[in-house]
Amino acid sequence: MADTKGVTLPPEELEALLLEVAHDAVDQAGSQHDGALLRFTALYAASPMGIALADPDGDIVEANLALGQLLGCSPDRLRGRHLTDLGSTEHDVSRLAEGLEQVRAGRDRYQERMLLDHTEDGQLWTDVTLARLPGDRPGSIYPVLMVSDANELHLLQERLLHQNVHDPLTGLPNASSFTTKLEAALGAGARDDIALIYLDVDGFKVINDGLGAGVGDQVLRGVANKLSAVFTGHHDGFVARLSGDGFAVLLRGELAATEVVRLVERALEDLNEPIYLGGHGIGVSASAGIVVRAAVEGGAAELLRAAEIALHRAKEAGKAQWMLFDPELDARDRGRYQLGAVIAGALENGEFSLVYQPTVKLSRPDELAAVNAGLRWNHPEKGELDSDEFYPLAQTTGMTVPLGRWLLAESLAATARWRAHLGDAAPDVCVRLPTRLAIDPDLVLLVKEQLDKHELPARALRLCTDRESMLDPRGEVLDSLSVLADLGAQLVLTISGSADLELIPQHHLPVRHVILSGPVVDALDTDEPAESDLRHLTQLITRARELHLRVGAEGVRTHEQAARLRQLGVIAARGPFVADSATGDEVDEMINRHPRS
């Protein structure tokens, strides 16, 4: 530098120049350092996040205003305190200590949500970050604590979590929460007894529709309170609202069925006490299904199913009562339900056939007056099943109408075959309408289509029904039967007493035949019938004649019983005294041997 490109500087001038350059460099570096320091200080002071600077041991040497405001004190009061002292609980203190150790061990950042102490408000949920700043000496670090307020966010999350597992109307745990609780109670290692109770408010729709949804909601709150009062505090009682007017209770511990039943009976009694709302004293009844067993006996799904079955049985038994789950009865029911579930496939696979019961004239027992057609299920495993074994199941599974349609179609096909061979000497076919088919709005269309298909006069068909079907409010049975009578079909009403018979004049029913059934017929199946039974039967037959009705009887067992009925004025009968039942081939042979005059 003293001799550059021919330019020579004296040493003293060079020294002055180098010092000037050095001073400029130092001044520039100092100004940058001072600027960075000023910016950090301003950021530290103005930050909305609480910040505490600590020495290597973790003692606070400086705290900003935001941290003081967050914790409800001045920053001066925080100086000298150890960072871990800010934790509200022992768990929070230990987590702060753990964070410090991790930062000292080289971790850049430690973050956790925890409770810190607030001077006035007690505990405060915060999001805490621990980091490290380089120290003055190589390898030394200074911990820094940064805190943000998470209280509102945490409370919001807690509220959302509560809403997610609780019913908003009653405040009880909801179905999801109940399932979680049940699965935990049945988890690995469970050794307690378990009691599961399903409760359902009887006729709640009447309250809801009659007095309004607002009153219905208040009733449900009242039910929830009463159930909680009875079961909470007993065997870790857990009460939940499942849906609508359905509730569930879980009990655990050393349980006896008798003790659980006493609690349920107490709850049902409490529910019967009126709840006064808007001047109305509203009392509710409830049905309950109860399951009591050891926790190790099966899983949650099986327990829930058992409680639901017990509840259904309680409702079927008349409501307002409890029913204890019976494993043996359930095993039998499972077989029945499995049977009901495959009816549709059995019908499609041709497993059903017609079975007949001939009706003879009592004055000419060798002459068929009509043939009653019914269904038989030729089950591949269970053998021949009569209609009373599967019709109730068909009602449950919605297969009554398809079975009834098949019965009507096949019966009329058989009738057409008989009439093609014997003409008017062929007997009428009588089909008993299942209630669900009797109330079907398409009944008239169905019957007419089948009559037209087989080119049969309507008079060849007798349609038999009973009091329950006639008065069923779900369909226009009376109108349908009137139209069918106008078409020429013969209507038959099964009766067991005067009340049934009087339906005919009361509703102007176009009935031509009545069939005596049940106890009124069974009363004559003795050597010496009671005088009162004979008088009742005589009055019934006399009244039927006044109404210009033909009187028949079913369930006649013996020829002596048939003879007594004939003496009283019954003109035709069916039952074991003729034949219990006959297959298609057998009835064809009977018709050929005993044609109608």
TrEMBL record:
<dbReference type="InterPro" id="IPR001633">
    <property type="entry name" value="EAL_dom"/>
</dbReference>
<feature type="domain" description="GGDEF">
    <location>
        <begin position="192"/>
        <end position="327"/>
    </location>
</feature>
<dbReference type="InterPro" id="IPR052155">
    <property type="entry name" value="Biofilm_reg_signaling"/>
</dbReference>
<dbReference type="InterPro" id="IPR029787">
    <property type="entry name" value="Nucleotide_cyclase"/>
</dbReference>
<dbReference type="InterPro" id="IPR000160">
    <property type="entry name" value="GGDEF_dom"/>
</dbReference>
<dbReference type="Pfam" id="PF00990">
    <property type="entry name" value="GGDEF"/>
</dbReference>
<dbReference type="Pfam" id="PF00563">
    <property type="entry name" value="EAL"/>
</dbReference>
<dbReference type="InterPro" id="IPR035919">
    <property type="entry name" value="EAL_sf"/>
</dbReference>
<dbReference type="InterPro" id="IPR000014">
    <property type="entry name" value="PAS"/>
</dbReference>
<dbReference type="InterPro" id="IPR035965">
    <property type="entry name" value="PAS-like_dom_sf"/>
</dbReference>
<feature type="domain" description="PAS">
    <location>
        <begin position="36"/>
        <end position="107"/>
    </location>
</feature>
<dbReference type="Pfam" id="PF08448">
    <property type="entry name" value="PAS_4"/>
</dbReference>
<dbReference type="InterPro" id="IPR043128">
    <property type="entry name" value="Rev_trsase/Diguanyl_cyclase"/>
</dbReference>
<protein>
    <submittedName>
        <fullName>GGDEF domain-containing protein</fullName>
    </submittedName>
</protein>
<feature type="domain" description="EAL">
    <location>
        <begin position="336"/>
        <end position="595"/>
    </location>
</feature>
<dbReference type="InterPro" id="IPR013656">
    <property type="entry name" value="PAS_4"/>
</dbReference>
